[in-house]
């Protein structure tokens, strides 16, 4: 049986739901509804078998919406939802979410929070412990300035399954002269050494317009070297991807960036790792 091809990071939204505070008319390519029927033909053309639908709004309603889509759509293999970690009822709500078969993880929108050390607040510890005990993944939507606290979090919770979304959004648009490169690399290495995974996604939207393999290769090569082909998960970040490219171009560019890997290693990055990390067979 061949390894399934899995897009480990994509989104859906309906504007009428009204909880996407970041989604404004100024983001013209994104300011419309994106539904499973919009993505299905792209998956077929690119040979992608299944996806992980990831939350795009900080609301419980968003999680329920994605879970409903997943129940109706065979190829949505899992949902990474949202939970208010600071709510007094967070543990009770989490227990309810754990009854949903396709829920595979949670993602607070850390990149939008003012407190860079938010994840280390003592009041959140029970929620992270509950993620560990329930076998749910933690998608870390962070930027480079959050990597130090994330390293501490991973040390505190060694059983927590962590994946760093979009390589922590390095400032690729600044080119090879980005002065944060060394610190980003150091902290990503620390996370890799602690057992975290990382998503090969969202990089084109962090790069300069028109960027291709030469601009992305140093970052991708660093992620593959530090995390190894066994802990890198390929994702599209569709439809946010449309700010920089279309689905098929990103797929082709990804294959080019991965061509130095063996066939088995490519299969892991393009699907096998997502299946294992999100425990999709169990889900």
Q: Which parts are unreliable, with pLDDT below 50 for 5 consecutive residues or more?
A: none
CATH topology assignment? TIM Barrel
Numbering strands along the chain, what is their spatial order in the largest sheet? Answer: 1-2-3-4-5-6-7-8
Q: What's the tally of helices?
A: 9
> Which CATH architecture would you pick?
Alpha-Beta Barrel
Report on this model:
- With 283 residues, the protein is an alpha/beta fold.
- The chain has a single domain, classed as TIM Barrel.
- The protein is built from nine helices and eight strands.
- Strand 5, helix 5 and strand 6 form a beta-alpha-beta unit.
- Helix 5 (147-156) runs parallel beside helix 6 (181-193) and helix 6 (181-193) packs parallel to helix 7 (213-227).
- The two termini are 19 Å apart.
- The mean pLDDT is 96.
Describe the structure concisely.
By secondary structure, the protein is α/β, with parallel strands linked by helices. The protein contains 9 helices and 8 strands. Helix 4 links the parallel strand 4 (103-106) and strand 5 (137-140).
Pick out its properties:
283 residues, alpha/beta, TIM Barrel, eight-stranded parallel β-sheet, 37% helix
